[in-house]
Structures are given as C-alpha cells and as structure tokens.
C-alpha cells in the first residue's frame, strides 16, 4: 500500500534540515549535489499489471461533506477526462499517465455513496477503509473513500495524507482484485502537513501559505492528495507496477516529486504557479465548470523528470 508520507518526512525533512543549517560551506553543497547525482529519479517497472482503458471512479463519502465540498472533488474527477478545458488543464496533467506502459487510463465518475451517519464510527482502521471501499462496484473501477474532517484514520497525519491499495472482490477464495484509495480532509487535524501549500507547514521555512483556489483549505488539500493517490493507483495498482525504492514504502508517480507544483520549486517553496488576480488564489490547472486546481508534479517516464503544468 502506497503512502503520501514523503510530503513531510524522509526526503522533505532531510532537505529542509540541510537548507536551514547556518552558512553551509561550498564543500558541503558539492557533496550534497554529488549524492543527489548518484540517485537518478527513475521509477522502475516491476512487470505487474497497470490500470488502463476505461475505468469507473466510485466515491464513498464518509462523514459530513457539504454539497459545495463534494462538488469541488466531483468537478476535479470530471476534469481529468475533459477535452474542452483551456490549458493548462487537469486533463493534460492526467495525460502523463498515458506514458506509463499500455496507453491511457480514462476515468469516468460512477457511483457515489453517502455515509453521513458514520456507520463504523469516527475512528477507522486500514482494514475498515478497505471494507468501505468494497461497498462500491468492483469491475474496472477504482473505489475512493473520502473521510470528513472529524474522522480519524490509522496513520492519518502521523505518517500519511492518503493511501491506495487493493482488495479481493471475493475475499473467501481471494479471486479478482480491485483497486481502492483513501484521502482524508486534514483541515482540523493536520493542515500544515496534508493541506500544504494552502497552510503554513508544521516545520521548515514558514513562508506565507497560498490562497486555495476553491476557497476551502481542507478540500483543496484533498484534491492534491487525491490526484497523488489516483496517479499511484493506475501506475502501481497492486504493488508491482512503477515505483522506486522498497515495495513497502514506494516512491510512485507523484510521491517521487514531493512538494513540486511549479517551475523553480525547492523545499518550502511550491514553485512558480498561476494566480487569479481577482481572488489571489494560486492554481496551475483549469477544470470543468470554471474550476481551478493546484496539482502536483508527476514523474514523466519519457524524460525521467518531474513534470509540472507551469
């Protein structure tokens, strides 16, 4: 199961620590550069199946989400398969996944399930997330569990902002795998970790946060994390697709490019992105219904670099 832990842990923590050391010598800088060069950014393909073709994206809303919050995420999903959105578009961001073997992964919004009564309580385990995901149809689908701001999930904020994994359509005979993902609303639990750069980070340089493009720090943060796990799901659905590092803690299509949203990004700085002059909101992708989103860089297998929209 993949994780978004890298947003605030291993890579970012190390680089932020180095960046805050007083007066680093040129020798130190050269040594660090040499270390980076020894580890090129290449996601190895491990010969497993990828999720390609027409895929149905089913959403299970767990807990309370307002209609406006749901529409932000629904519009994002629909933006990934919209050919008529002006550039830079969410659809063109998603098209990078086509460069991973076997062609396009076309996402179409499917079933939406509302669980506003917290059927399993307000503290969920990983296995309960899988159980919730199994409630939606399994055939050619990705089932996404979205948890509300007052729902605690194992590892949420402590080590991850979202995950993706797989389960069996028939657990008794372990036949037929299906893919699922989970993302939580971090606004009240850890916005500095899982809604950055729309909130000041919990550590590192305290640069002013960006203005969320849909005026909802938590849900705009969820879009970033949803984009991350969806890219990981189609390119490494069952743990033997594209990734770098150990299979138990892989760097995937987007987590390999942690913290990069625009050109010139560095630890603590999201990069040069676009700004709405009227609202001051930052974004790098246009979506359907006039939406705007801030989407993370994705590793491009043709260039072996982290590709940004702007």
TrEMBL record:
UniProt KW Transport keyword: no
| Transmembrane parts of this sequence | none
Q: Where is the signal peptide?
A: 1-27
Q: Which GO terms describe its cellular component?
A: apoplast
Keywords from the named record: Apoplast, Secreted, Signal
Question: What is the predominant subcellular site recorded for this chain?
Answer: secreted
Q: Name one Pfam family in it.
A: Phi_1
Cell compartments where the protein resides: Secreted, Extracellular space, Apoplast
Q: Does the keyword Signal apply?
A: yes
Out of the domains of life, which is the source?
Eukaryota
Stated family = Belongs to the EXORDIUM family.
- Name under which the protein is recorded: Uncharacterized protein
